[in-house]
Structure formats: C-alpha cells, structure tokens
C-alpha cells in the first residue's frame, strides 16, 4: 500500500496529465513557477516526499478541474460531472500556448525572467 504522500503524488500527476500540463523533466520547474515555490518543493510534491499546504491543494484541484476530495484522499470521482471549478480558477491550465509559455519562462535564468517581465510590463 503506498504511503499517503506517494498516493497524493500519483493523483497530482494524474490531475496534471488530465489537463495536459508539461510532462517529463520540465514538469517540476513548470509547477514550481506556476505556484511560486522552489523546484525542490515541487519535486517533493511530485515525488511523494511532501504534501502541499491546503491552500495550494485547493488551487491545484481548481486549476486542474479535479475534485478536491479525490486529490486529497483518492475517494470519489476524479472529475465531477456538472461541476465547473475551472471557470473560477485564477489561472487555469487552459491552453497549450499558456503551458508552453510557462515552460519556456521557467527555463530562463532569474536575470532573463526579470528582463522579460520588464519588457512585457512596458508594452
């Protein structure tokens, strides 16, 4: 039987796959960037070594369109019919362009990130 942390990590990866979130080595970086945490923290969530705080779990469930109870416990349906939690998300993983942009941004050095933000802010 998997540990609570490992089971959560499996469900988190399923939820991210459900919305087409970046796969492979870029997933850790993209998730860290999206949730403003370190790559190490993101790696621990995805690897079953740590659990996010409740607020972040709620955000993850909302942004991926999965049921919070399922994400936390594994009980119930992964996606509830007729429930539209994604519409209320502050930044849903809605398009391939957004995911690509996040992935590319996450690969930049901190100096280049700041420069890009300054450029975009002045446009």
TrEMBL record:
InterPro entries in the cross-refs: Lambda_DNA-bd_dom_sf (IPR010982), Phage_CI_N (IPR010744)
Residues of the Bacteriophage CI repressor N-terminal domain: 29-78
Keyword Cytoplasm attributed: no
Source organism superkingdom: Bacteria
Record-linked Pfam families: Phage_CI_repr (PF07022)
Keyword field: DNA-binding
UniProt GO MF annotations: DNA binding
Protein name: DNA-binding protein
Species of provenance: Lysobacter niastensis
